[in-house]
Amino acid sequence: MDHLAKLARIALTEEEKAHFSGQLGTILNYFDQLKSVNMDGVEPSAHAFPVYNILRGDEPGPALDVEALLRIAPASRDNQVLVPRVVDDEG
Amino acid sequence: MSSTEFEIVIGLEVHVQLKTKSKVFAHAAYHYGAEPNTLIDPVVLALPGALPVLNKAALTQAVRYGLLVGAEIPPVSKWDRKNYFYPDSPKNYQLSQKDFPITMGGEVEIELPGPARNIMGEHKVIRLHHAHLEEDVGKLSHATGGSLVDYNRAGAPLLEIVTEPDLRSADEAVALLNAIRMLLISAGIADCDMEKGQMRCDANVSVRPKGQKELNTRTEMKNLNSISGVKNAIEYEARRQIREVEAGRTIQQETRGWNAETGRTYTLRTKEDAHDYRYFPDPDLMPVKVSEEEKAQLKATLPERPYDRQRRYMEVFNLPFTVTSVFVPDRPLCEYFEAAVSEYPANSLGIANLIANDLLRDLAASGKASVDMFGEADASTVTAASLADCPIKPAQLAGLVKLTDEGVISKQQAKDVFTEMFSTGKDASVIVDEKGLRQSNDTGEIESIIKEVLAQPTSAKSIAEFKAGNEKALNALKGPVMKASKGKANPKLVDEIIRKLLG
Amino acid sequence: MSDSLSFKSVAELSSLLAAGKITSLELMQSCIDRISAVDGKIGAFLGFDQEDAIAQAKASDERRKNGKTLGPLDGIPVGLKDNISLAGQPLTCASKMLKSYVSPYDATVTARLRQAGAIVWGWLNMDEFAMGSTTENSACKKTCNPWDISRVPGGSSGGCAAAVSAGMTPLALGSDTGGSIRQPASYCGVVGMKPTYGRVSRYGVAAFASSLDQVGPLAHTVEDAALLLQAIAGADSHDGTALVNPVPDYLREMDSKKGPWKVGVPKEFFGDGLDSAVREQVQKAIEFYKKAGCTITEISLPETRYAVAAYYIIATAEASSNLARFDGIRYGHRSDKATDAVDVYSLSRAEGFGPEVKRRIILGTYVLTSGYYDAYYVRAQKIRTLIRDDFMRAFNDVDFILAPVSPTIAPKFGEKSNDLLALYLGDIYTIPVNLAGLPAISVPCGVAHEMPVSFQLIGKPLDEVTLFAAAREFEKAHDFVTRHPQL
Q1: What is the pTM of this model?
Q2: In Å, how far from its chain's centre is CA A83?
Q3: Out of B269, B311, C407, C454, which could bridge B273 as a Cys pair, Cβ 3.0 to 4.6 Å?
């Protein structure tokens, strides 16, 4: 649960962790029914129906004003979004 | 002290920004150097509800790249989400390709540095593993009290070219980058300017005793963003690994960074800390199929590969290696040269030399181009635009070479005519006529001038010396003759006639 | 005046507007009055911009005066589930995460409704980020079922269904990922449709599960639903999953589609879990079609028994990634306790998301982690293939499929929330349709335990027309359109 909370970037309380891990267990048990299904030769489907080549032309569309970004951003400086210092690693 | 000889094994992951007008999955425009956060839209910022749609031009460029390197274009290509949180990644996942990339395989011919600048180095073929089409991230800069994010670059189309571990030295790695850059620039697929971040590189490096077949544990060096960075980081890392092995330690699989200031690589994260990217097929994008017809159409848009062109120039046009190595990385220049040659096929070398020496010098001096082909990442080539602006058109340049070859003007005069052409854009023949530069080939007239000169007492000494076998003395006689003819006398005829009269 | 307009169909309102008997402004005002009168009890609306709605109504009246009316929806208010972006208006997804977010752009469906002259308005309550089936997961407020305020309106488009049902807006747009339009429509006694996956652009609609989400109408009548779908359907250069197939003229083609049809009834959808009173009402609908000359065929969709498991794997996996963008960096809630970037993520998300959203993100993260991906996600994707194939096999023999929407009537508040699995299994009849990407319409067909009950018709891909035609035939032969909750 700690690992999942870290991957999902959600700080869970101890109470939440206990609660969720119980529920997760129940649900995963339920999911286990899939393990008994014979799926030999079955292709996985990312969508219900195969559709291909939905593309757009290379025409630049209108830009969003930088002011629109600054209005919704929790913090900004010099027309950029300000975040607390990023520790070098994750990239 | 062990005497084992080690072999360095390198594979590169080269990230190249493709040339398109808009971003790969967003409508927002993309170009380098815009003011912060001016190339954004709801998709770039990953606002609630924003969705990606694949830009056809990005797909086309990626496929053209594949065809250019002889890669297979698989029948179906898909996009996956690579999930990780980082402030420069607005969605906190990157749209990339894991299982069904846009190209598979292929190869790139590289040229190693020769023993001297005018001698061609060894050529080698490097196999490619695959390339995938993905999106770039934004730019994070550190400021007091935090970090600032500019999302302009986020969503720029990025092709990640992954090689097989075929490279055996830092020089080969650099040669590969140069070869890819030449290929992509020549086909108009990418600009590959490393200073602008349009080409970036990760290197996987391992070492093994010479002769060993299996690969040893490798480390991955991230974000090598200059040619010297690639070269120095690989050399440092190979030395480090050899040192470790010789000291009896094992190499850990890890991701390392390169510090250009200290000249060292350092651990970024170990295998244990490796990310779990939780790749899965992006449900917002449908897969892509490229038909045989489309492939054939795109293939027809591709130029000759630079090293194929180089061989042709050397074999068909008899150009020396040094000249071809100036031309070949630069497709507009090659096209200029070939257009000129098609006007006057008799002297391709003369045309080539005039372009390589005079034209490029004057273009550079006029600020239209920089011609240093051998420098760092910013070694810009003569752009198509600067050649389009060039006051001398290919046919005009060919005309000048032809006039010279035909003896209408002397080589010395040709230099002046060239300068005049560059500043006025006039044809060589027009300038020659306007200035009355046409050489005189009238042997009777030349002979009478020579006779007058020889008759002068000041000539007596030179005549005597020449007759005594001093060839150089002849020049002292030619000077006054050319002067008397106002420079128009054909020097070849002057030479012949003096010899005849004194002979 | 106001009550007399509250339950009129769009067809009626449109002809009143055309005849000059009412103005759009009067219609809009009657909706606002109705909200004042009843929404205190119901809580369907998180809010609305009265000034903007009035301005849109006036603009419509102006167009009409100048003979420039844009079509049958001109001047008709359409309420929006609060996950559909409206430029310059708040978009909360009923989450604390987006409490103060204002969308700078229009969703494609919003833009298309504007082009059709409709008044796009209101922020209708929902389960947070559309995760839930009772609207109890809203972080903003409680929405009650207009037929019995001790019961839930269903979800996740609970605000939409309650608002239409209680006469506060003649039309609403919701989104359906696993039944989120059809089920609340059924609980509240209105018509709800989930179109074929890709028929309607999702651009500007905050995503829950991208491969399952589809926007669709909630309305008083089948025709109204068709009118609303007509305005929003079609290809979109902003949505790479929006289908490029041409959109038929639903109303006209509906008229030309006549039964009798071959109706499939899947035996798996009438099993033990189905409340007997609900079953009875759905059976009556089957009888209706039989009497109308349709062939009723029992069919089998065996793989749908795995649908709930496959759905919760796919939907939570996609959601865990879709909701990663809510990180407190560019917009939305940022924790003021955060001292570095990692904190911004973890604390903002901990503070901004409610328990169900967290639970689903954790679950979705789990099924995608390396080592479990093949066992869960890939298998779920294969189940999707099997379920689709089941449906497509059935469609070789039948024109559409008739089934219940929900095993029960609307539950009481808190009735099911302790048993998560039971709650998830409540979507057992709607989920397979999303996995198979098919169109389905939920149509009121009776009363059980004094609450409305609907059946759903499930159609072939892109065959919304047949569903509309068959649903309308049922609707015309019954009086459910004229029944309304007493408030």
Answers
A1: 0.90
A2: 20
A3: B269
| Residue B63 contacts residue B73 (beta carbons within 8 Å) | yes
C432 to chain A, any CB pair closer than 8 A? The answer is no
pLDDT of residue B383: 58
Q: What percent of chain B has pLDDT over 90?
A: 63
pLDDT grade for A91, boundaries at 50, 70 and 90: very low
Nearest to C338 among A51, A68, A84 (CB): A84
**What confidence tier does B471 reach under pLDDT thresholds 50, 70, 90?**
confident
What is the distance in angstroms between the Cα of B156 and the nearest Cα belonging to chain C?
17
Q: Which chains touch C (3 or more CB pairs under 8 A)?
A: A, B
Q: Is residue C311 one of the residues assigned to a domain?
A: no
Q: What is the least distance, in Å, from the CA of B176 to any CA of chain C?
A: 33
Minimal Cα–Cα distance from B222 to chain A, Å? 10
Residues B98 and B141 sit within 8 Å (Cβ to Cβ): no
Mutate to test the interface with B, among C320, C322, C345 (most CBs of B within 10 A): C322
Interface of B with C in 121-160 (CB under 8 A): 147, 149, 151
At C8, list the tokens.
């009129």
pLDDT in tens, C385-412: 999 999 999 999 999 999 999 999 999 9
Q: What share of chain C is helix, strand, coil (3-state, %, to 5)?
A: 45, 15, 40
Query: In whole numbers, what is the pLDDT of chain C averaged over residues?
Result: 96
**Total count of domains within chain C:** 1
Query: C106 in a domain, yes or no?
Result: yes
C343 with A56: Cβ contact below 8 A: no
Chain A to chain B Cβ contacts (< 8 Å): 134
Query: Would you say B107 and B69 are in contact if contact means Cβ atoms under 8 Å apart?
Result: yes
Domain of C94, in residue numbers = 2-263+402-482
Residues C461-474 as b or e (16 or more Cβ within 10 Å = b): bbbbbbbbbbbbbb
Report CB contact under 8 Å: C325, B91: yes
**Which residues does chain B have within 8 Å of residue A51's beta carbon, measured at their own beta carbons?**
286
Residues of A in contact with C241 (CB under 8 A): 47, 51, 54
Contact yes or no for C231/C116 (Cβ under 8 A): yes
Kindly list the structural domains of chain B, giving each domain's residue range(s) and its CATH number in brackets, ordered by start: 7-206 (no CATH), 304-434 (no CATH), 443-502 (1.10.10)
- Give the mean pLDDT of B310-337: 91
pLDDT tens-digit profile of B53-90? Answer: 999 999 999 999 999 999 999 999 999 999 999 999 99
- Strands B219-224, B254-259: pairing is parallel
Residue carrying the six token digits 């009834």: C265
- Give C-chain residues touching A16 at CB under 8 angstroms: 355, 358
Q: Which residues of C are catalytic?
A: 81, 156, 180
Interacting residues of B479 by C-beta distance below 8 A, sequence separation 6+: none
| 3-state per-residue secondary structure call for C324-360 | HHCCCCCCCCCCCCCCCHHHHHHHHHHHHCCHHHHHH
| Residue C102 within a domain | yes
Residue C288 covered by a domain: no
Test the B interface: residue of A45, A81, A85 with most B CBs within 10 Å: A81
Q: Do A81 and C386 touch (CB under 8 A)?
A: no
Q: Which residue has the higher pLDDT, B456 or B384?
A: B456
What confidence score (pLDDT) does residue B2 get? 52
Contacts of B145 in chain A (CB under 8 A): 82, 85
CATH number (domain holding residue C248): 3.90.1300.10
Looking at the partner chain, which of B83, B90, B286 has a beta carbon nearest the beta carbon of C240? Answer: B286
Q: What is the DSSP string of C313-325?
A: HHHHHHHHHHGGG
Q: How much is the ipTM here?
A: 0.96
Q: Locate A39 and state its tokens.
A: 């799926």
B92 to chain A: which residues are within 8 Å by CB? 9
